[in-house]
């Protein structure tokens, strides 16, 4: 009985760590794949000068038309949601500090915006932000007045639905597609990606770590 008790204690200690490492490996692979998919699509958008048509933010009609013309035809998408449910987890997403995550322009993350499900199962939502917001919130410098934040949930509707763990932000502008945190010092990124941080800039941390999600401490 004592031996079984010891085995149980050891299992309780080690198994969660093993599961976390496995999830990190799987999610890292998906993030790298999603980044490549979206980067290829955005290159077409640059060639078409697509960002010249994004003149304001919080304009659903403008975003819907832009998405249908410049993105939708060039992606393998299982499902699209135009401000409706079905393309993002029904659970409210959270930051690393356990606070609730929200779009700047459309309320709770995953609602009232354009979201879609890639054929590989990744959930993606798009939100438009002004140039200064992109720099302040996501650590990326852009030249256009309006940029796009792609919120990527690499494991679809599965938990934990937390930034820096399974949700990452990629930033698109008129001439670039970068992981959030790309244009700020690594110390700023690491501080944002601590266990009590926000997690907005963790995509850069993962990319710079050879596409491996680290254990956040």
Structural key phrases:
36% helix; 217 residues
Q: Can you describe what's shown?
A:
It is built from 5 helices and 8 strands; from the N terminus they run H-H-E-E-E-E-E-H-E-E-E-H-H. It is an alpha+beta fold and 217 residues long. The chain has one domain. Strands 1-4-5-6-7-8 form a 6-stranded antiparallel β-sheet. The longest helix is centred in the N-terminal third of the chain and has 46 residues, at 2-47. The chain is globular, with a radius of gyration of 18 Å. The two termini are 35 Å apart. The model is unreliable at 7-13 and 15-19 (pLDDT under 50).
Strand order in the largest sheet: 1-4-5-6-7-8
Q: H/E series, N to C?
A: HHEEEEEHEEEHH
SS element count, helices: 5
First-residue to last-residue Cα separation: 35 Å
Q: Briefly note the structural class of the backbone.
A: alpha+beta
Largest sheet: 6 strands, antiparallel
The share of residues in helices is 25-40%
How much of the sequence lies in strands comes to 15-25%
Number of strands: 8
Question: What is the mean pLDDT?
Answer: 86
Oligomer: single chain
Radius of gyration using CA atoms only: 18 Å
Extract low-pLDDT stretches. 7-13, 15-19
Whole-number count of domains: 1
- Overall shape: globular
